[in-house]
Specification:
155 residues, mainly alpha
Amino acid sequence: KGNMKDYKKEAITYLDSIVDTRSADQVREEDEKRYEDYCKKNPENGYVQMMVKNSYKNLDAKLQTKAILKVGNQLMKNGLKRKDFKHFPKWIEHGKLLLPDNYEMVNFEANVLYREGKKEKAIELKRKVLGMINPKDRIYPYMKEALQKMEAGTY
């Protein structure tokens, strides 16, 4: 609390440990095995069982991606220096390998690139994010607004 220097150090160590402990392939393989084992032991028998079964799909991949997004966004909100951004590409790449269809990781990458001053690439990725989201989704207008702000240079 209130000690950004220590938080930054611990957050970087934490996210590096997520990325360095197991490869994305290992995580996906372990997730698939867990999911298959669960499905064999618990045949689908209704809506609740289906929901529980779906929660096992990509379980670790979802947890790791969520951690990267949560901690990474927290780091970005608290005054990073240019040198601190060197860690982000490794984390982002890991998250994109874990869940390739996850628009949140692409959006995070766009935000990081924008903060680094790589505005053209950030705008390109933000457009990609809009293409990944259903226009009827509640998040769509916010992403569209963020793109417009990036394009105007006011993001």
